Amino acid sequence: MRDLDVTFAALADPTRRAILARLAKGEASVMELAQPFVMSQPAISKHLKVLERAGLISCGRDAQRRPRRLETRPLRDANRWLENYRQFWDAQFRRLDDLLQDLQTGNPMIKKNKIKKKKSARLKGDQE
Amino acid sequence: MRDLDVTFAALADPTRRAILARLAKGEASVMELAQPFVMSQPAISKHLKVLERAGLISCGRDAQRRPRRLETRPLRDANRWLENYRQFWDAQFRRLDDLLQDLQTGNPMIKKNKIKKKKSARLKGDQE
DNA sequence: CATATATATAACCTAATAGTAATATAACAA
DNA sequence: TTGTTATATTACTATTAGGTTATATATATG
Asked: N or C, which terminus of chain A has less Cβ within 10 Å?
């Protein structure tokens, strides 16, 4: 899905995630959003344009101000995508999987980190 | 969090998301992963390196093959981050105040000490 | 040994990102 | 009007991303 490209790309920047976190408290002007950061105002405006293009914020108007507010549909969509993988990190699922394997083999010991292995291939763990 | 940068950036590419979807069915070699795509094998290897650097996959060895498998901890972490915003797209309302602290800590781009500019000073005039 | 297969690496190109400073625009205020 | 504030836009630069082709490396096999 093309939208996920833009959404995840927008979320990949800490400044933009901080902006979203700020907007979670309520709408804010560009100056208010820029205040915590060391970068210039045009840089913030650029980040806001990225967030806007991703549909993560929308823009209002109040005199000279253009208050932004959070729009959460892209967040919900990203969350839905991630939910497809929930079974892989869900601890309960993993414990259940181990329990089933133990029942099959008659092994009373609970093994940790038993995820579907295949053939004789060894898998090295992730680095960090 | 720096990890979220790399995770979201890795997820922002449709080829990489497709690779993860394939690996959700079980581990696969580079050739198997490359097969559905029109791009060259080195391009796939590059994508795999991105995914590996993000901790989203790990690498095993089986003769000449280097089967990749899904690693879901970054997905879980990304999901946790998104969960902070769940209330915005959920019907049910939850108090948000406790979350805000977590959302805004650990960001390297945030100023340590906010210095207020004098009201008579031109915004553009003085720079740090 | 020579060769085929699977994957990685190097060198290169192009386009996009993320920042800057300077300037433009638009609304308010005196 | 003049000036100030808030924001956007332009022009520029450096870095990174994503692709290519060509080549290197590692392993299996005849």
From this structure: C
Q: Are residues B38 and B13 in the same domain?
A: yes
**Chain segment B27-60, per-residue pLDDT in tens:** 999 999 999 999 999 999 999 999 999 999 999 9
- Domain extent, residue B95, equals 75-104
Average pLDDT, chain A: 79
Nearest residue to B1 via CA among B59, B78, B113: B78
Percent of chain B with pLDDT over 90: 66
Do A36 and B100 lie within an 8 Å CB cutoff? no
Domain co-membership, B14 together with B65: yes
In terms of domains, do A14 and A74 share one? yes
The answer on B32 and B60 residing in a single domain is yes
Strand A68-70 and strand A122-123: the pairing is unpaired
- Same-domain status, A12 and A70: yes
Q: What does the pLDDT average to over A88-97?
A: 66
Q: In chain A, which residue's Cα lies nearest the Cα of B20?
A: A85
Instruction: Provide residues 35-54 of A with CB closer than 7 Å to any strand D atom.
Output: 41-42, 45-46, 48-49
